[in-house]
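Q: Here's a chain of 91 amino acids. Please give me its 3D structure as tokens.
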Amino acid sequence: MGSSVQARLDEETKQALDRIVRRYGWSVSRALRECILQTDKLSTPKRTQRMIGIGSVDFGPGDLATNKEYLRDLGVKSMGKGWRPPQERGE
């Protein structure tokens, strides 16, 4: 295999290592290798996914994200003709 490593373990860490060895039936070497690999995997920063196609468009209103007037009638079609916003219903 690879290289040897020597480490000093306090009593709590030694007991934890012994529990892992008993629980999984591994050798001490395998338990240490697995723990090191798992710690490395958990501590490696995950790549953030990037969305393709995000950017500006040259159509539609330029203030769509900030003008609340565009949201006033949002959902009216799916809620039915009698739907009114909560402000108009007195809620």
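Q: Can you summarize the key feature?
A: The chain has a mean pLDDT of 82.
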